[in-house]
Every structure is written in structure tokens, then in C-alpha cells.
């Protein structure tokens, strides 16, 4: 049987079964009109599903006007075509098999299109893309399609209990952020399978906070990935090097020819673990974000990643608005940490009214959401926990009693309780 005939028969069976019993529609979890290969079948399905969702009985006779008025459908026999669909549906006991076949063929077409692009990269080495990058494309593609059309399952009390007990037997690490008050709010630190969002208005310290935590984890030997979608990787890493050398990153401008400064940078860098990876990614697309994260997971065995920041991830399709695009990105971030036992911490921009851009997208997917506020007068900051899925709400200080202090060295954030008077006097 040819692919075209295989598609046609399965699609006709789906339509026929729906016309014979509208109740089959509610058993087709994850099925969409886009799964149909033939446009006329897609159009018929849209008419049928629209009527069923509106509580109207849909029959072949009731669709007579659609078949007669639409030249695409009438060209295939009109109502006679619907009768033929119902005849073909007699070959199947239930709708699951033909619906699964239609969905499977749709996914295969999409995979083949993506595989064709990957094969072109793999076929002839170009000196730019190495084999590991092509492999990462394959991994990101598998993640992309593994969640597509995923069906919600009805599962019993006992089954869910067994799954919870099995999860409790697994080692699920928690990594300290290096900031005691933040660790307390997070119930120990960054937990794998969780994703955390730090929201702030522009120039309020979200990049400093993310780079501080990343540097603290690198110092502790935890491999992580830092995705620089706003500032460049050199700017971020200059802060890390400056912190190690106990100077401000402005020294990379003011002391470019100072051999003593250069020597201190070299000596401090040699002592540090080489386990913090960067991606210099202005205007990064969603697809490229998926690729680099999967590459870092498979090649560099990262335990978590930092994204600075969410709203800068591009690649919006023409069918989406920005909120829908951010929902898709945020949902994937939540999915990838669970499937790979890692954590994610990403920043998000707040507007002048204090609202998070695409806030609904974040709230639907994030495990903890913090609002970071910085006081430039005394270099202090506090973080309000605005949402949490699994912990009590614990703030990192308050406006009256801040929890963080911006150290001029680097700069980087410290737990305010650990800051000495000597450090404060540096300002």
C-alpha cells in the first residue's frame, strides 16, 4: 500500500467513525486537524469537530450543505464521499487505531523534513559544524517530538502512589546556590527537575544574580551552562574573573596594560574548575536554545543551566503571538529539566508597571518565581517569592531588612549576613 493510500484510508476511517458516533471525538486526545494529509479531509474534520464541541449532533446528512458549497470537497463526491468514509470505518473496531495512524504519519512527515536538514549537515563536513553539534540537533529533535501529541492518561490512586514511592528511591540532588538566604527559600538550593525564575525590572540585578549563582556552583564543582542572550559571554566571565581577583570588572578597561592585574587574573583562573560553559547567544531562537541545551547535557554532563533572559528567546512562528511563544519556551524548559534530571534558573524582564512580560506563560510552568528589587543607594537587594509549587513562601529579605548585598568586586551578590564592614566600606 502506498503512503498516500495509507493516509487516505486511515483519514477516511476517522471521519466515518465520527459521523457514525460523535462520542468517539472525546476519545481522541491530542488529535488535531493539522494531522490530516489531505486538505479536504482536514476541512471536513474541522466542520465535524466544531459542531461536536458546540453540542450539535453531526451527521453525513447534516454536512450535505458543506459538501455542496465547498468545491474542494464536492469534487471528491460530496455526500457520497462521506458515505464511503463510513463504509471504510467498518474495517476498524474503535477509533484509536485509525486516529493513531493519522497522527503517526503526520509526525513521520515532520521528522523526515527535519531529518533531511540534519542529513545535509552530516553528509559533507564543512569545517564549521562538528559531529557533536549534529548529534545535539538529533537530541533536540527527539525532545521536540517526544512531547508532541502527548496524551493525558487516567491513572488510579494506587498507580500514582507506586510512582511516587519509586521516585523517592531515586537520587535527586539539590545544589547550593552559594547564597544562604536563597538556599533557605529554595529549601536547600536548586533541586533537579525544578525550574526557577528571577524577575526584575531592567538594571535591577537579574544578570548579576544569575552569574553569581553560576560562579558559586562552578567553584563547588557543579557543571552548568550559562546562556548569554543579553550580555556577551566575555562580559559575564569578566565579572567572574574580577571577583576572583578581588577587583571590579571595570579593571578590564582601566587596567588593560597592567601586568600585575593580568598576572592575578591568570593565577586565579588556573585554580578554578573548568566546568562552567557559556553560550554567546544574542537573538537565540527557540530551536537553537533546544540544541545547545541538549548538547551541553549530552556532551558536558551539566547539572543545570541559566538563561539570561526568557523574553530574548526568538524564533516565534507566524501563527503565534509573543505570549504564546513564551508559553511554548517556558513549557519546554519545565519539560527538559524533568526528563534529564537537571535544574534551570532563568531571568525574566518586568515592565515599568512591575508586570512580568509574558507573566502568564511563566506562572504556568515555573516551580518558583521571585521578584528581585535592588536599592542603588545602599547596594542592597531583596527577593519576594511570588509563586511556588512545592515549598512554603519564604522571601529573601524585605525592603526594610534586605537579604542581599551587591559586592563591588565582580560585581556579585552576597548574603548580607556574611558581608563584613570592610567590604561595605569599599563603596
Report on the structure:
The strands form two sheets. The protein has a nine-stranded mixed beta sheet. A two-stranded antiparallel sheet has the order 1-2. α6 packs antiparallel against α7. The protein has three domains: 101 residues, DNAb Helicase, Chain A (Orthogonal Bundle); 39 residues, no CATH class; 251 residues, P-loop containing nucleotide triphosphate hydrolases (Rossmann fold), CATH 3.40.50. β8 and β9 form a beta hairpin. The mean pLDDT is 83. It is of the alpha/beta class.
Number of helices in the DSSP assignment: 17
Question: How does CATH name the architecture of the largest domain?
Answer: 3-Layer(aba) Sandwich
Q: Tell me the number of strands.
A: 11
Helix content: 40-55%
* Major pleated sheet: 9 strands, mixed
Look at the structure and give the CATH class of the largest domain: Alpha Beta
**How many structural domains in the coordinates?**
3
Molecular shape: elongated
Q: Strand order of the main beta sheet, please? A: 5-4-6-7-3-8-9-10-11
Q: Round the Cα radius of gyration to an integer and report it.
A: 27 Å
Q: Beta-sheet strand percentage?
A: 5-15%
Query: End-to-end span in angstroms?
Result: 78 Å
CATH topology tier name of the largest domain: Rossmann fold
The CATH superfamily name of the largest domain is P-loop containing nucleotide triphosphate hydrolases
